[in-house]
Amino acid sequence: MEILRITTAGSVDDGKSTLIGRLLYETQSLKIDQVEHIEVKSESLGYDYLDFSLATDGLLTEREQGITIDVSHLYFSTPKRRFIIADAPGHVEYTRNMVTGASNVNVAIILLDARKGVMEQTKRHLYITQLLGIKNLIFTINKMDLIDYSESQFEAIKSDILQLVNQYDWNPTLNFIPVSALKGDNVIGKSENMSWYDGVDLLTLIESLEIKLNNGFDSYVQVQNVIRPKTEDHHDYRGFAGKVKSGFFTEGDEIEVFPSGIKTRIKSIEKYGDQKKKVAAGENATILLEDEIDASRGNAFVKTNHNLKTDKQIKAKVCWMQPEHLNPYGKYWIQHGIHKSLAKIRGIDSKMDWEAWSTIPSDTLKMNDIGEVNLQLAQPLMYAPYKTNKNLGAFILIDANTNNTAGVGFIQ
Amino acid sequence: MDTLSHLEEEAIYIIREVAGQFEKPVLLFSGGKDSIVLLHLCQKAFLPAKIPFPLLHIDTGHNFPETIALRDELVKKYSVKLHVGNVQDSIDQGKVVEEKGKYASRNILQTTTLLETIEELKFDACMGGARRDEEKARAKERIFSVRDDFGQWNEKLQRPELFDILNGQIHTGENIRVFPISNWTELDVWEYIRHEQLEIPSIYFSHRRKVFLRDGQLMPCSDFIMHDTDAAFEESVRFRTVGDMSCTAAVPSEAVDLDTVIDEIRGSSISERGARMDDKRSEGAMEERKKVGYF
Predict the structure, then answer these.
(1) B164 contacts on A by Cβ (under 8 Å)
(2) B44:A100 CB<8 A
(3) Is A226 helix (H, G, I), strand (E, B) or coil?
(4) ipTM of this complex > 0.90?
């Protein structure tokens, strides 16, 4: 079965680390020496329980402060499936880390404290998961033990969430599970304390969850390297190596090179030295063409019947990632897949005001802000809107002075 | 796509990005199982051409001889160029001082040799076989990880990595450490070795060896480690990681081939780096070493 990549959203107070810790512990993914380490550490910190966040919070500063700052990657498996968790911090000052954590996943687990229900941060987590277009959501209503496993309170929270989700033009698969991460209810195995709950436990759900993607249908591959062995056996060999980002390619397909517009056909497809008839999205390929045409790193091959857009002006939702504010007069590199171009800011339409829950005008974006930005590019981009094709609709902005990844954009 | 294919696709995409984005990349090669897997992936990425970058081995001088023998064989097999940075040279030049006492190890000293070699040969990207599941500080590591011109890792100033977009832009003097098999687990590495039928050093399999007990761990007897020769005894052991002999403990094992090793790891209750004395020096031992440029 396909690896399932999960992101978790929620704060320390919601019991996120406890939930992840329990999943790792109960699936025997934590080894004796790691558990012993947590036992010794928990005791020395004066706790009378095992603090599983010690397993997930990897940095010394995180363990000192008892909070998750950076995205941490955790691995576990059951006989049914392999899992990768991108554990991201939940506070507003770490919005960018949540966006990062959510960029590579198939499913988001959003934690709520059953006593508190929907909070400000729940709304923000939802906003981010819809921005990223995640198709599978699991809401775990935690600390059910502290509200006497009340069905009516669980149902009330569920209907609040449904109301929030319905605001968006977005149709994810929704799951709601009442749990107690501390006591283990409905995390692994059905709880006896909530006979009214007719769904499955968390582990059973993620083991069987079908992955939904928004990859789009247009066939698109970017050239990473031109392979030229220059040996006796491969004298005139020119292979274009790259990952199929969307759709698929077969031998004989007519293709167009972007940006030159030159058309030719695929002579043959190789994968790691072996011939292949077809390569599909997610696969690396080496493509050989019928004609000797000029194509280099960063160029794209698309099938001639595509519906992609080509433009030097784009509008995108941008999440700002670096401490230096977005400079409206500055230059940035835009990196779309592996293709790079210089970009200027034409203007900022608005940004999200997390307190008022509305968009407001702004001349800049600060770290963790999400706004609508218009960009002017030096070279055209061939793309699809993010909503229709995740792999062709996202880019990063690189600060030309610091080289840092300054922001991430989702093309409208 | 099954797990191994998925991980292989991800790694080869990253390796191709390294060749595409950098002027002078290098593959850090220890001779251990992870770097052997990485070398194999590098070959697959560029077939039918040769691997377009050299290997770099930082030799502590305290390696297992089996590892060095296989290293030289693989260099021939894949026809790649090998650079070797010797920790002994750094010691002779007075740049580092050998540790003293029974816990003496060259593990920390190799950082100096590594950074000097990178600077001397002007490598701008150093690929390595580190994995996030190995250790809690490594779980926070990026795939493209920037090191400043002192070779330092700043855990608070890491570049966010989104989707499969890898930002390798750096200033002169900086370099990037790249970890193509970040998302692999120990078991994935073993299953891949079995699937691709890769040759690995014999010390990964059970053999009779003279060992002694130190802090509950079976340490290999060698000239590089101070120990009481009377306390030595012979045992059937294998190594789960291959580091410097002075900091790598053996585990009791009867696993003589890939199938039995894989069964053993599936059933194991001790973590892979649980036998690495270098991680046990303090709570943040790996994080502290990474900050000053450790691999």
Answers:
(1) 104, 243, 337
(2) no
(3) strand
(4) yes
